[in-house]
Amino acid sequence: MANLADFDVKNKYQATIKKSERLTPASTEEIREIVLEVQPGFECQVDQSFGVLVKATDEFGNKFHHRLYSVADLPGKTNGNPLITMLVKRCSYVDDFSGERYPGIASNYLCDRKVGDEITVTGPHKLPFVVPEDKNANLILVGMGTGIAPFRAFVKHIYKNVKDWKGKIRLFYGARSGLELLYLNDADGDLTNYYDEATFEAFHALSPRPHMADPIALDEAIEGNAAEILEMLNHTNTYIYVAGYDKVKAMLDKAFANILGSKENWETRKAELVAGGKWAEVIY
Predict the structure, then answer these.
(1) What is the pLDDT of residue 211?
(2) Are 68 and 144 members of one domain?
(3) Residues 22-44: pLDDT tens digits?
(4) What tens digit of pLDDT does each residue of 192-203 get?
(5) Which CA distances in Å does 91 have to 35, 214, 216?
(6) Are 158 and 276 contained in the same domain?
(7) What global pTM score does this model have?
(8) Can the peptide bond before residue 75 be classed as cis, meaning omega within 30 degrees of 0?
(9) Which of 81, 73, 67, 69 is nearest to 14 (CA)?
(10) Strand (E) or helix (H) holding 227
């Protein structure tokens, strides 16, 4: 995985907040959908990301904090200017030495912005999720939390702009509760519009006791579809894309090892996927 310091921030653009809407109820963690109108010259597609620059001096003397975000919807235009959508979760972190909790710099900055405010964006930057040229390719998409963002844009792009897609697309999405299932719930079921597509299915994974911080049962959701996953993994044109928290990797390794019969079988198959450019992850 690339370090944020590896991304060029010379291409900077001013963007205006056109919309900032909280998608999760007040009783849950705050996740906002923010829509930006960016000055002319900026273009960011569904297979790319963009950065947000926030003025903040850190312990190393850096004067800006840089954070990358995936495009969460098909890019559009307004007044002839680029229009992009992002998901932001208000975060905090615990200092390893002091044990004190501090607000996340970029997430709190963005969640506090109001309509009409201006921010600075960078990019576009490369994102490892690309639409295969083979329209018979199978896609296993695994997202946690705001990790749904790139896959929402990805799925919409395939069914709107890529004609005659024949491969299976299986989306596994984890959230603490049904109230936090972004784009897949009663209030905002954007991705449910594609449930009638013969090649698309989405599966939810929730925490059995979200108020007690029980882990999200993403591995159980995947293993619950073991027969189909095994059949897909037996094809050489199957891709697996993962976006979300670091702990998702351990859950995936457990689930796929159980499906393939052993840890060794999964390690061999995963190595084949990685070597063939058919495994990609964005972990934060």
Answers:
(1) 44
(2) no
(3) 988 887 889 999 999 999 999 99
(4) 667 667 898 888
(5) 19, 19, 18
(6) yes
(7) 0.85
(8) no
(9) 81
(10) helix 226-233
